[in-house]
Structure formats: structure tokens, C-alpha cells
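Entry 12.
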Amino acid sequence: MIYTIALQLNCFDINSTVTYLRQSRQAVFEAWPSKILNDNQNHICQKIINGKEFSISIQIGTNTFTSTSLYTFDASSEIKIQMDCAVAGQCLYANINQFSIAIFSLYFPTDDITVSSVAGSLRNRIFDHLQCKSQAKAVVSLVSGSEQILATTTPVQECRLSPSSEMMNIMAFLGTQQISQIPFNLSAAPFNLPLAIQPNYITYVNSLPFVCASRPDTAVCIGLSQTLIQNEFLNFIGGSKNTISVRYQGAPTLFNQNVKFLFTSIQSSQPQDCFASSTLTFYDKYLRVLADPGACTQCSLAYFATLFSYDSVYLRFVMNINEDYTGFTYQNEYKVTDYHLGTKFDKMLTCEMMTDVNACQTQLPLVLENMRDNSTIRLALVFKKNEAVVYKALYTPKISQPQIQTANVSIFDEKVCIKFQPVTDNEYINIQIVLHDLKIDTQVLTSLSTTSYCNSLSSAQIKSINSISQQKLQLQATATFGTQVVTEVPVMLIQQGSHPVYIWIIASIIIILSSIAVVLTVQCSK
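Predicted 3D structure (C-alpha cells):
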């Protein structure tokens, strides 16, 4: 029989909120850690479920919203998760608007535990012109004479706009500063929208071309293209503006109706298939970058040389704890000098190898500590000319944070045993333990399970170990990945003696039992 534990428990503050988005028919759950939990609640929230993965669902009447991925519960951090309607075509505003409360449920599959409660408030966001578009991407070309920006978006299910005029202005902003605006006729190219659907133009206008050579502000367009490729986290915003007639204080007046959207992906228009997949593995003081080669249809130095002049190649690391670029951000680069495109990239990097050593040492730990499921993580292959970026290919890597930690070292009469947590999965590494001047090496195939490895000692090694006391024994370990060396691996000496500890324990138990037996025998003989 399978039992599921269901707890009516709120680990969050009373001001938690569920916001229903009418336009996209989604629900957003926001909550903050509670500071008024009793001992039992604290034990559950901060011990039992803390650090565990969970899925979340929201119930508003008969309408259910669910998350599509797992999140990690952090009892000390705020949470913000956006969920889709569980049944396509449902979760309509007319149904949601009848209710005033929302119930949230967190399900932890590992322990088969469900934690649920009522959100502090339920809100409806009816019209939000900042939510009329999603998945906004900008693809940029810096090829001389063909500079352009192609912006693409995906419409949401519903975006309520007033009937628009035939003329629309395409806008671009960096932060709050408008840097570009050009008028388009909706009935002409490139949109060619029939008059009947022009009032709902925002649903159909999802490709916004900025071809610099055909624009009146060519120099501004080229400058914008260069700026977008050069930097990350620019808060680059696109949008459209229509002038519509509305009645204000009883008289008709003209009003600008704006729609804006944030670009979260900006990359070059040239081929992006240099890498097929990539993984960033973060150790205590090291970053391992592993990237498998892609199709490489045109991924070669010779090909790129035909498009633009460059003098250096970098790997750029881009991280932000939220998808909308809020919160901790991190950006750094490693200059590539010994890698050939089309081959596997596998290298251990240190902060000293990055272009910004201080940012690596101070900012990167903050990002890793606050990493979330909706974090923005990118690995970029970047070409530069005179320190200016001329090409950038973006890849979304997998993230891994294993622990390099030798669990214990046990020294016996004729062998030394090493038991440690795996550093990587299914890969040979070398572990070296140094006992003063005595070096003990072992090569192992790491796996997901913790395993012990023992090395037999020579008579000279045994004599060397016995000549020093445990208090003076100095331990250090080094792990080697190919030619890359990871030093300062933590080591803990568990025991030193002729037999494992459990043998002494068993021997002690036998002696105690024998003593008791002798005493009882003597008493009985009396």
C-alpha cells in the first residue's frame, strides 16, 4: 500500500499572492519566507522539505494551473513561479473572476509529500500591454553593408487593444531611452495586413525587421546592432505604437497606444551550430567547460573570415538568477587560444584565467547560491576585432555542481583506503594523497555511488607511516582530469591503526560478554 502525506501547512508569509493573467491565461505565484512559524512548522519547512525538488499547482475554483518543471525549495528565499492552465482552452477570466481565494499545493515526489495552503490574496491582471508578447528574440547581422536586426516575438492568447490606426511605429529602447522609431503602414510591406484584421494587428505582427540600409536612420541602426552584440543584460525593449482616437472629458483626442516587450535572447544571424550540447560544472574553485561539436555546417575560422575581420575568440559566460534579468547578474570571458572549431572543448578554468578575475571571485558565488529554475544561463562563442564583438553564438548549457570532497582516509598496517564522493560521472580521474613525503596515487572510475579504493603499501611505506604520529600526519589531495589539476581537495583522516575500527568494536564486545559470562559462572558456582 502506498501512502501520500498531505500537510495543510503554509511555509510562506501571509502576503503571498496569486495573480491571474487574463491575456495569457496563466497564474503567477509569489511568496516570501514566513518569520512566525512554530517549532514543528520550522522543522518541516526548514529541515524536511528544504533543498528538495517540488512541482506546484494552483486551484482557483475548478480551474487548475500547473508548473511544467521541478523547482528546488529554499526555505530562506522568495519564490516566483508562472504556471500554465492545466487544460488547454480553460481557465477563462469569466470563470476565474467568480472566486476570491486561490489554493496552492507543493508536491515533493522524492518523499511523496504534499504541502498546501491558501494564498494571502488573489489578483486579476486584466490588460497588460507589457504582456502582449513573449519569447522576444533579436537576431543581428554585422556583415558590412548588410547590417540588420530581425526581431521575432510570439503573441499571447489574448491582448486587448483599442482599434488601431493604419500607421504603426516600430520602436526600440535601451532601458528607458528610446533610440529608434520608424513608421510602417500595416496595409503595405512587410506586413500587408487586410483592413479587417488591422484592429487586432498585434496578434499578426511578430516579425519586426530593422534592415539598416533601407532605413532613414542607417547610422543609428548600425550602432544599435553593434551595441546589442557587444553587451548582455542591456534591457533591450522593442515595441509598437499606434495613434488612436479616444474621448477625454467629452471630446475626441488622440492617444498613443503602446505595446512593449523585453528581449532575452540576442545573437548573430550566422550559423549557430558550432556546439551541439554544452555543460558547465562548478567546483569549489574551478569551472569545467564541456562542449560537444555540432553539425558545424559553416563553423570554421575560414568561413567566419569571409564575413568579418577578427583578431580573437572568447567563451563568454552569462548568468542571471531570473529570466527577466533582475537580481544577481554575472558575465565573464575566457580567451580561447588552443581550441580548434569542430572539435570537443573540455577544459578546467580558474578565476585567474578569466578576463575579470574579481567578478569571478566575488559575483559568481552569489549567482550560484541564488540560482533558480527560471534563471538565464548562456554560453556564448564570441569573435572580437579590437575588443569589439563582431559575432556571437548563444548556447544554453546544462549546469552541474558536484562536490569535490574526499570523505575519509583510513590507514591500516598494509594498506591505505580512500573513500570519497564522486567528482564526475563515469570518468577516470587520478587521486593523490600525500602523507608528509609519502605520496599514494590511485586511478579510479568515478560513479554516482560513493566507493572505497584501497592501495597496498610497501614495507618502506609502512615504516614511513609508523614513524610519525597521527597528530603530525599531514594530508592533502589532488584530483587530475587529464592534464587539468584540481588541488586543495578536502581530506579527513578517519583512523590509523592495524585494523578497521569496527574490528576493535567487535573485539571489545566479545571481551565484555566474556567477562559477564565469567562473573555469572562464578556466582552460580557459589
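Annotation: The CA atoms of residues 172 and 180 lie 5 Å apart. Residues 498-526 have pLDDT under 50 and may be disordered.
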